[in-house]
Amino acid sequence: MTENIEMNASTRTTVGKANRRLGHGELAGVVYGPAVDAMPVAVDRHAFEQVLSHEGNIASKLIDLKVDGGKTVHVIVKAMQHDALKGTVTHVDFWAVNMRRPVTTTVPVHFEGDAPGVKTGGVFMHNVAHINVEALPDELPEFVTADISALEVGDSIHVRDLTCPKGVTILDALDEIVASVVAPAKEEEEVVSEEAAEPEVIGASAEGE
């Protein structure tokens, strides 16, 4: 669990294509959830992009969103839309959470340690980079840990082996392989047949003809 992110927002009356008229430094968004009416908002674009670049997996971050300087709403980022050409965020969905009810989100897997199998020539393979978890909003982990320090060639780590903080439930299949160390692929050696040492010359004249 990490400290909540504080962010200011203002209600907006422009919606749809009219969002293009927002100030250059503003980012359109919406706050919604089972306990609140959908509310179009705008947040400071620079502040939001700073959070994206410095806070890692924003989907697991609890944000204290203060709208129009009033009451704080506890939210998490549910979805983001991006510009197809520039890749910049054009819209953000904030999900208003109930602090006493679990929420589901996706968190990254962090690998810890050095696999002995890699030192002996094995190749480290990771199949899962993120997993789905459920927890109370203020107990969402920034990541879950996979300890690879005992992996030899042929060994694997499964979802059931991941380390999670207390109160966090993993929702993915427990037998799913997260990472493994496999033997390196062997290059097939070309076998040259001894029978093909000298080609037969077709049409050669027999001696004495």
Question: Major β-sheet, in short?
Answer: 6 strands, mixed, barrel
Major sheet strand order: 1-3-2-6-5-4
> What is the name of the CATH superfamily of the largest domain?
Ribosomal Protein L25, Chain P
Query: Taking Cα atoms only, what radius of gyration do you get, to the nearest Å?
Result: 28 Å
- β-sheet strand percentage: 35-45%
Order of helices and strands: EEEHEEEEHEEEEEE
Shape: elongated
**Percent range of helical residues:** under 10%
Task: Write down the domain tally.
Answer: 2
Total helical segments: 2
Arithmetic mean of pLDDT: 85
Look at the helices and sheets and give the structural class: mainly beta
How does CATH name the architecture of the largest domain?
Answer: Beta Barrel
Detail the poorly predicted runs. 189-193
Can you identify the CATH class of the largest domain? Mainly Beta
Compute the separation of the termini in Å. Answer: 97 Å
Seen as an oligomer or otherwise, the chain set is: single chain
Q: What is the CATH topology classification name of the largest domain? A: Ribosomal Protein L25, Chain P
